[in-house]
Amino acid sequence: MARKKPLALYRNIGIIAHIDAGKTTTTERVLYYTGRKHQIVNTHETKDGKGSTTTDYMEQERKRGITIQSAAVTAEWKGHQINVIDTPGHVDFTIEVNRSLRVLDGAVVVFDGVAGVEPQTETNWRLADQYKVPRLCYVNKMDRIGANFAHCVEGIRERLGANALLCQVPLGSSDEFVGMVDMVAGVGYIWASDDKDSTWESVPLEALKDRLSFASTADNAWIADLPKLRQDLLETALALDDDAFERLLNTGEFDPTVLKHCIRKGTVTGELVPVLCGSSYKNKGVQQLLDAVVDYLPYPGENGGIATVDEDGNVVGEQEVTDDAPARALAFKVINDQFGTLTFCRIYSGVIKKGDTLLNVTRGKKERVGRIVEVQADDTKEIDEVRAGDICAFVSMKDTETGDSLSDPAHPALLERMRFPDPVISVSVEPKNRNDVDKLSTALYKMVKADPSLRMEVDQETGQTVLKGMGELHLEITIDRMRTELGVEASMGKPRVSFREAFGKRVEHTYTHKKQTGGSGQFAEVTMIFEPGEPGSGVVFSDEVVGGRVPREYIPAVEHSVKAESKEGQVAGYEVVDFKARLIDGKYHDVDSSALAFEIATRQCFREAQKLSKPKLLEPIMSLEVVTEATYLGDVIGDINRRRGTITEQGQKGTSAFVQGFVPLSEMFGYINFLRSATSGRGNFSMIFDHYQEVPASMVDKLMEKEAK
């Protein structure tokens, strides 16, 4: 079957932002205006559990009014197929943004017009930088009191370092927001009403000054500055085309088609980031946003293909996005639902048909493609084949997990993998019914397989099952989803912090392992230097033995023992991180030495050396932002100080005050309860892991005692 639509008419985009910026509301309008649905549901209407937006269909999402897992929907706009992934904004679910951006060709970054650039926006922006994803900025909620377009643009330029190109500026703000100016077309759009089917009037730029007058001086200033703003846009965009730029400077004229081409070129390469504005809730600006997606964001492959790598992750080539190549796909998400396991995949090359066999190159196992479905949030539609550029789901794949590469068995290739954060918090989990132990293990395995930011392990000392995740909400919702999706009821223990340990100073130590009880014995001696490394450097092993003092065949055993022993330190049994282990000398016996003997010697050498180094306990430090009314700011700052936090910045965001700083995670459990009480329910906060930091010596015993309870 031939391709139905040229690749140039596809757009694979994600909608990303801080929590409550309006991603899901925007997605609802996209589906309405593209004809995919005929009724709009708002997130605040779903908390009674009776209705749901298209992409927030889970019970946990409806109850909380937030997005928890990314959802895919497909829409048509002006002949283009737009595959949209609506992602969560809450920090605990950053993994969903991570894996979505990995397979998308472009992104719409939504900003709250009042709050501007928020912490999770910065995190998502850095992820998009990491995966080199072209972006559009959409300043939403211009109808809210305190909306400040200039403040938002300043944040995009200064905090995100983006070369923001103002393709739209607002006409009014808060309750006077009536539309926007399209700087590219050189025309203003004024909506007749807030109704979802309202029409808008196109008004020439020169007529806007006489037509509109606002109570806000800042809003009037935007209209007064339109000629200069448009000239800035023309010069910035046309600078990407020498002939067009020269023509503009000499004659003041330009070709509108060339202007759009230049903006597109700058967006695709990342040199420019177009900025749009609107109010999704008041149904203004979403159609223009769709136009910009079509005009400026790349089609699959326009920005290059995907890197192919070797087993060590080194880039060895690139796979172009084309049908005329061996089938290659990346599994970016696995979910369990009523249809079984759905494995979401982005197809990078070739054609995959129902009944084909693919090789999971990551795991060396073959998978048969039984059914292929196109996903519309929680609904599915069976299709017979998928091609390069498509996003689809394969049903009931047995061994494929997030990040795995699927390939034509005759032409295997590993595609560049995703990078996932380490969990920072853990809880014990046990079944509510003693007879459900096996069911709990199976359910936890499925949840961990679907979410790479979860980890499951069994505590060898207590026998408890421990679940690790990105935050309290993340773990709480995982337990709740096991109940609703897999029918397993579980109880969650008190959250525990994932501490780390580190060497306190450089230590040189020798350990001799000698065991002779008749017959062949065991002998090995190692002399090693352990020294602290830079934060984030990991465990580095260095073989510096000369003269054959330790035979070559025993070196791997020494390195393996160092890395294995680092998993459990001598302070409190936590993982030891960021150090260099140098093997500088040793001794062996022709008969009694073995790899096992050198493993035992290295383990004991590590343990004793760490104790001698005056080891440090490290704790996760979170970047915290609290937004509330100025009246409550003193109480909030005082509480942060009591929690061993440090304040780095405070100021105004629209009509609200904010404070930013760093706080140990161990002090932040149950913080939402304090904040609600202290601010009469008017405060909210966001928190994200930033770095590990040494625990003050006076606090170590107290913290360990607290963790043991």
From TrEMBL:
The keyword DNA repair does not apply. It comes from the Bacteria. It is found in: Cytoplasm. This is Elongation factor G. Pfam families: EFG_C, EFG_III, EFG_IV, GTP_EFTU, GTP_EFTU_D2. The gene is fusA. One of its GO terms (molecular function) is guanosine tetraphosphate binding. Catalyzes the GTP-dependent ribosomal translocation step during translation elongation. During this step, the ribosome changes from the pre-translocational (PRE) to the post-translocational (POST) state as the newly formed A-site-bound peptidyl-tRNA and P-site-bound deacylated tRNA move to the P and E sites, respectively. Catalyzes the coordinated movement of the two tRNA molecules, the mRNA and conformational changes in the ribosome. Belongs to the TRAFAC class translation factor GTPase superfamily. Classic translation factor GTPase family. EF-G/EF-2 subfamily. Keywords: Cytoplasm, Elongation factor, GTP-binding, Nucleotide-binding, Protein biosynthesis. Its main location: cytoplasm. GTP binds at residues 17-24, 86-90, 140-143. Residues 8-302 form the Tr-type G domain. GO terms for biological process: ribosome disassembly. One of its GO terms (cellular component) is cytoplasm. SMART domains: EFG_C (SM00838), EFG_IV (SM00889). HAMAP family: EF_G_EF_2_B. It comes from Rhodanobacter fulvus Jip2.
